[in-house]
Amino acid sequence: MTSQAQTVPEILRRIHSLYLQLDELRGRLMKGPRLAQAHQEQIRQAEKNLELTKKAHTEARMASHAKQLEYEQKLADIQRRKGRLLECDDNREYQLLKDQIAADEMAASVLADEAIELMARVEEMAVKVQEAEAAVAAAKETAARWQEEFARQEPIIRSDMAEVERELKHLITQLDAMLPYEVKDLYQRTLRSKGSDALAPLRGEFCGGCNQHVPINMRSELICGKPIWCRSCGRLLYIADEGR
User: Which H or E run contains 20?
Assistant: First the structure.
């Protein structure tokens, strides 16, 4: 019984460690598709931003062109009215045209300022289009680099998983041969159904899984080699390595 009490905890410790390794490897394996999806979403967002920026640039160019035409039309009106000044028959008509020309010149000045602002806006949006195009290219490059890196990592991860699973299978078989008949099935079902969550070390007086207190009678039974499950979290307890 003493030998078994020492050996079973050692095997359980190793089994738990292997299950935790397997969890970590599975997490890394699942990270690949998740990150690939995240990168594709970044590309979609960058492309959407590029599309909106190009649209804004086009609208700014159209507005600038329309404002320029409006300004040129106002200048043409001024020149036309100035030409009519020589044809006036009386001072009243002459003064009316002069007033219209003055108003048109003020309007032309405002239009000129607006046209300059719109031209600056067009230049600004052209820069933003270039930045958005660069963002799309960068997102695609990042996605391609990750795909290449994961393609390199994936076979290594799968190989490590296979090695861990082989050792797990061997240890579970070894454990099965050491356990009393009446608890074999319970051990096996617990390990196979819950994986790393099936086990927890006993650390001092507490369950290493949920940190709840384990009564002294249960601790004594565990030390004697009896299978003990934490009453709080249901994990199968094993004696922790003293060095931990």
Answer: helix 2-84
pTM for this prediction: 0.67
CB of 121 closer than 8 Å to CB of 60: yes
Q: Which domain holds residue 62?
A: 30-157
* Residue 243 within a domain: no
DSSP string, 103-159: HHHHHHHHHHHHHHHHHHHHHHHHHHHHHHHHHHHHHHHHHHHHHHHHHHHHHHHHH
**Amino acid found at 47:** E
pLDDT in tens, 29-71: 999 999 999 999 999 999 999 999 999 999 999 999 999 999 9
**Residue 148 maps to which CATH number?**
1.10.287
